């Protein structure tokens, strides 16, 4: 009996016509080049781990990652020069990915920030060599139980976790797609693509490994929790709109679509689904940006993760997540602005105040910076709420400014060390300015930028965001923002006072002399901070040109 | 040619920068460099002057715009210069007298180890003063105004180790702040009224502005002038400013800086012409000050302070003239220039006397010096004759004109009052200057052994003094006598040169306008009366000080004398009214600050700290608590969104 005959025993031919060929999706490779370069390099990186001898892996990976990020940035610049940010903006990959000004601006920011923070990943001169091998910030063998014989053997053998490079490339891939995602499913997939590598990266600190693993588990659990909310929200919104495409959702919200998908006849146009679903999606994004009350993972994870990862995460995740939030609110849900604005007002206010107030009593520099990042998320939210073109461009500018300050600040944190690795307790930073005036001065520049003192990028960014918010009718929000800035200035300046006006402790930490890699990171951070502070206009104009979404 | 204008300021400014930043390696050549650059500025001024003479009267004003200083929409200020006849007069006076005093200082400051710095400050002063007079707008003028204030402060307190010098510098600075505030308010008023600071538009638009606003601006400018030119009620600093080295007293506190107020009033003539009330205030201030300064000058035994009182009085004449409008502007400036010559000469003479007398300043301890210091005696004597208005010498021409113009104030009682005051002032001038002359150069030697510098802080440093040694008066070195001789020439001839055929008034006329005064009584009568008053003053002084021996310790004196010795109780007035009042105000404000403001601030900080501590406990490290927070947050988020729709 032939196979077909057997098959026909328990099946009957369908009445309907057999499915035709699934059409090949049309992919605009050139417009997606930045993402494709990075993901290609990530795949190559995995192959490198498999086939390149251990000794050469570090250099191969560093080279591959650097070249890939630089090439992807060049591709972004090429696209922007080709007008894809303004006149040629379009939706690529069958409606999944938007290629427009905000997407390109944020992708460029993410790529540049990633490039400089990858240098801190590769730093191998901060600790003295162990058993003749240079060591970096990552565990010799992440799978080894902390404190076990196995771990000691791995350290002795000079193993290094060079997998961090492909992992970070995968994370960057997701981050590049995230602000460009033009439908909810792409959004979700991008979220997972960048989150999963980050969970892993958090777990591979060389020192304080238990803390690092705890941070990773917490981040993973809470991240999964929030992803579930997000996915549920996507389902509800799909039920409402009959589509996951932003443009389609926006049309349905505005009521310009009358055709109703028969399969969804019961749910389409049900506002309750839209409101609940929208709120759940918002929650998922607010979790990623670290807004109160979805912020509680931030301090623990920032503290536990290896500091280079913290810097990368604090900068790049925030850029990507705010990009996605902007696109969702401005492209998919503008018709719902009356509903989400008041809620976002409240969240912005508690985020600004909460971050600033709790930071006052922090004693660990990494936790302090974590709370500072929460407060900054609040400031950026104020710009998001403006719902004006100035709102978009001010947020873009703020993200550019903030990411370099953050990466630079965390890079400085990696330099201040004692016998137990990084000396992150604030009491150990007392008198740092007397011993290492240059490092302390650089850190002071970053702190002043965080505080938003004029002549630093922080001031220009904060001014742009508050201006946009005030013009968007959110004057009260600006008042709260300024008050929060005043509160925040207290703890930033307190660190400066501690560094420069306290007596150094006799057993205080030493400042490691880094390789040119970290020096580049810090140098670029200072340069961008000062340039954006002294001459912000060019970049404000750039952000302003880029501030139009495609729909 | 106008491109040279900036060089006037640039040369001394360069000198100041090099001397003050150059450090000790310039100690050996610093004074030469400073003098050279002052002279260079004078040469530039002279070249511009010659060029200016070659043009028609109306085409003489030059303009140079260096760059746009504050280019803001609706608020434009340029670094731009204007060199017209009025500015040119000042430029020549400042650079000419300035260069002479630089030369004099080479000798005078020879033993001071900080001589390089002294020349740096002098150059800084020249740069600021030149900027003040060639600025083409009020804002830039203000920069120069503050600059000369700074230089004055630094130079009065040059011997800062002496508490009296440090205090005097601080006093000058503080009193000047009051005047400066007037200038800044005037500039603000101008900006709101005219929308610009430039002389041309502001002074050209006075016709379309309300008289009230012009009066307000005029009074504020007058306040500024009172501060800088030591006019009542802001005159108290000038006497103490004599704590500075004597060349400073000659240059800044006699010849140039203190006349900046007169410049300001004359420059702003268009404003005052349109605001008669402000003009009257100017005249009253001038008249009061000219008597005030003269009376103070009569009672002082310190030669420099007597001359300081005289300076105050002479500037009173200039301010009085400047308040008279077009009939007085030219005479105010003319007296300013002649006064620049003879008063600088008198101060340099005083410095020369002190140089020879172990830095003694008390005239009661001089006497009979004419035989020991002949050049000083002759030059000082010529300056003396010039200032009292001896016929034919400079002061005669310029002061007599002011007295005539004062009588021409109006046809009624005011003309008589102001004219009478000016006339009386001439008599008192003759009295106190004759007193100075007699006590210093004539009579018995009343020299005293040198004081011990360890015990007496008033001894100027730099000169080796053996305690208890008698002074050996001697003529000063040539670097000091030559400037005195040059200035004496000016004291003798400048007035006649300027006055004959109204040469000076016609020169200034395109800038300041000029009208012939018509006094209430005839001009010959005024001149005769002036001569009579002058002789009377000199005669009384001779009877009191030349005819009788001068006691070494000052007698108690009459009530007026005692008051005049205390600067007519100016400091006491300031102390009781301003200092005490200010202290009470400060104390009450400090109390409010401590109890209320600090209370609120610290309370806020403490409450935020407490809040932070409590909120921090929510961060307990358990992932489950975090999840609950997220869940609750989401629930609220959804509820709020739905509620928003329901509302």
UniProtKB/TrEMBL annotation, chain A:
- What keywords are assigned to this protein? Cell membrane, Membrane, NAD, Quinone, Translocase, Transmembrane, Transmembrane helix, Transport
Q: Tell me which EC number(s) this protein carries.
A: 7.1.1.-
> Catalysed reaction per UniProt?
a quinone + NADH + 5 H(+)(in) = a quinol + NAD(+) + 4 H(+)(out)
Record's subcellular location: Cell membrane; Endomembrane system; Membrane
Please describe what this protein does.
NDH-1 shuttles electrons from NADH, via FMN and iron-sulfur (Fe-S) centers, to quinones in the respiratory chain. The immediate electron acceptor for the enzyme in this species is believed to be a menaquinone. Couples the redox reaction to proton translocation (for every two electrons transferred, four hydrogen ions are translocated across the cytoplasmic membrane), and thus conserves the redox energy in a proton gradient.
Per the similarity annotation, which family is this?
Belongs to the complex I subunit 2 family.
User: In its UniProt entry, what is this protein called?
Assistant: NADH-quinone oxidoreductase subunit N
Lineage, highest ranks first: Bacteria, Bacillati, Actinomycetota, Actinomycetes, Kitasatosporales
